[in-house]
Amino acid sequence: MKRAEKVIISCAITGSIHTPSMSPHLPVTAEDIAAQAIGAAEAGASILHLHARETGTGRPTQDIAEYEKFLPVIKDGTDAIINITTGAGLGMTMDQRLAAANHFKPEIASMNMGSFNFNISGAAKRGGFEHDWEQPYLEMTTDFILSNTFKQIERALTDLTEHDTRFEFECYDVGHLYNLAHFADRGMIKPPFFVQSIFGILGGIGPEPENLMHMKSTADRLFGDDYYLSILAAGRHQFPFVTMGAILGGNVRVGLEDNLYLGKGELAPDNAAAVSKIKHILEELSLRVATPDEARKMLGTKGAANTGI
Questions:
Q1: What is the CATH classification number for the domain harbouring 136?
Q2: What is the Cα–Cα distance from 109 to 284, expressed in whole angstroms?
Q3: Domain count, the chain
Q4: What DSSP character marks residue 3?
Q5: What is the DSSP letter of 172?
């Protein structure tokens, strides 16, 4: 693993897991997504991981028109790296999932590195949903596979590499690291790899510290010094896990996509609050936070001026 002198903070602004009824602070309008993204960057995030939401319903969408409502605002309001999802919303086709990244040609795009059962149905038990799509969207995941076959991954890598887009490789289990190594061995991707290890999604690797150590040691064995490790964990595991990852020399991801709370029973008022909290923790540990340009240099991105935003 590359041990950088400074820690990259990624902030995942809205995602496609949490629904609008779960928190009044989850940004689902274009205006709120833009404002919270800029606020997160001002708080210390150097990478902004972005999804879009449908106007009026807050449902996840990859509609280019919805992205156009906030991406230029974010680019004008901050120099943070824009990272567009290709995981997108649950149940979307690959054409839908890749549409925004292919159109806007961002510096970074997320890339899920394997198929797995993705179950967030437990959240449907809360009740009190504002929109009729929310509960069925959550409940259907008892019979849902997040599909990322080798053919699908190869297509996505081929498409986006043509745009000189780099990747946030999302690895939800140990096997996903081996899938990444397969594409590296084929020469389809070039180091340094930005490996996002994800813990706590039902169907993926569990949120135990031993699993973090196992993911790191496996990545070390497969990639040596050719990768940067980043850590995210779902829900209440977020801050303890990312702190542990940073202590081990990794980078961190926070944000309302992954966790709606700042602490037990305390909803985060916005994404900036999550970034501020982890930045404070890092600085208390005598770890320095990377600026967007320092993150660009570490990850070898093409720069904001060379995107289609």
A1: 3.20.20.70
A2: 31
A3: 1
A4: -
A5: S
The CA R_g of the chain, rounded to the nearest whole Å, is 18
C-alpha count within 13 angstroms, C-beta hemisphere, residue 161? 12
Nearest to 8 by CA among 49, 46, 50: 46
77's tokens = 């309001």
Q: Is the peptide bond before 207 cis (omega within 30 degrees of 0)?
A: no
Q: Is residue 264 part of a domain?
A: yes
Question: Please, are residues 255 and 49 in contact by the beta-carbon 8 Å criterion?
Answer: yes
Question: What domain range includes position 23?
Answer: 6-306
Q: Say what the pTM is.
A: 0.97
Backbone angles phi, psi at 6, to 5 degrees: -130, 155
Is it the case that residue 5 has pLDDT exceeding 90? no
Amino acid at 115: S
Q: Is residue 1 part of a domain?
A: no
The whole-number pLDDT of residue 126 equals 84
* Sign of CA pseudo-dihedral 18, 20, 22, 27: positive
Q: Is 229 helix (H, G, I), strand (E, B) or coil?
A: strand
In a domain, 201, yes or no: yes
Q: Which two tokens stand for residue 162?
A: 């043509």
What six digits make up the tokens of 128?
Answer: 């009190």
